[in-house]
Amino acid sequence: MFRLDGKTALITGAGSGIGREIALLFGKQGATVAIGDVNDQSERAVANEIIAAGGTAMAVPLDVTDLGSAETAVRDIVGSTGRLDILVNNAGIGLVGNLTETAPQDFARLIAVNVYGVYHCAQAAVNQMLQQEPKGGAIVNIASIAGQVAVARRFAYGATKGAVISMTQSIAMDYIDQGIRCNCICPGTVETPFVEAYLQKYHAGEIEETRKQLHARQPLGRMGRPEEIAPLALYLASDDAGYVTGSQMVIDGGLTAR
Ligand SMILES: NC(=O)c1ccc[n+]([C@@H]2O[C@H](COP(=O)([O-])OP(=O)(O)OC[C@H]3O[C@@H](n4cnc5c(N)ncnc54)[C@H](O)[C@@H]3O)[C@@H](O)[C@H]2O)c1
């Protein structure tokens, strides 16, 4: 179950955190994995980890804010494997602030990475998925519960993740007859370098105390782990999820059930 043998997957932002864990699992389950990240060093390290474990992987330079970069990445992957079956739009950045605290340049940067990033990579991938034989593929977008419900002082972040959920539904419906499925995952708080960066930027001097509070704030009493998100991405990307499209899958330790 949930094997990806013979499939090629591009995972954006896979040099770290959730994307890295998805890449490692996809490699283990038989996919040829393309690691796309702005950080060349970490994308190469993850590709090497997959290869060292006996899998097949390549590092592709990728800045998701640039459509040309996304198109080049897809062209390079297809040049080497012949097709692209799976895209995981995982690259994303965060920002803390309510409406009046959010500066225009910060808002623009979040839209550039989190919204344009999904648009660029999905467009490049869907163009390829429509022209290959057999046609089709699976797209998994990493959204957030912040796109579904209001999380305090995540004005810009929530807006971008709401857009990711909406793009997921549009893509799912527009290409449903062409064999392309598109779903998103909405994690709660997951302990990754993303959260570390948040702690250092906004809570320097009280990092351990704030980390404890972050754990305690979750109904399950702890933050999620990247390896608890990756299996859902694997399922959604696999043929076992053939009847699943346009869905928002929540993994949040119970947060939105409160
Ligand atoms: N960690 C959480 O609590 C959490 C919760 C919900 C959703 N998410 C989402 O999950 C995704 C991954 O988050 P993470 O916690 O693993 O983050 P992370 O910071 O550990 O990793 C993000 C990766 O994206 C890369 N990246 C950033 N900008 C890029 C760009 N322009 N082009 C290509 N790559 C780029 C970074 O280099 C990094 O390797 C993000 O979309 C994030 O919004 C995270």
What can you see in these coordinates?
- Helix 4 packs parallel to helix 5.
- The protein has two domains: 207 residues, 3-Layer(aba) Sandwich (Rossmann fold); 33 residues, no CATH class.
- With 258 residues, the protein is of the alpha/beta class.
- The protein has eight helices and seven strands.
- The mean pLDDT is 97.
- Strands 3-2-1-4-5-6-7 form a seven-stranded parallel beta sheet, with helices on both faces.
- Nicotinamide-adenine-dinucleotide (NAD) binds next to helix 1, helix 4 and helix 6.
Secondary-structure map with pairings?
Layout: E1 8-12, H1 17-28, E2 32-37, H2 40-52, E3 56-61, H3 67-81, E4 86-89, H4 104-131, E5 137-142, H5 155-174, E6 180-187, H6 193-202, H7 207-217, H8 226-237, E7 248-251
Helix pairs in contact: 1-2, 1-8, 3-4, 4-5
Bound molecules: nicotinamide-adenine-dinucleotide.
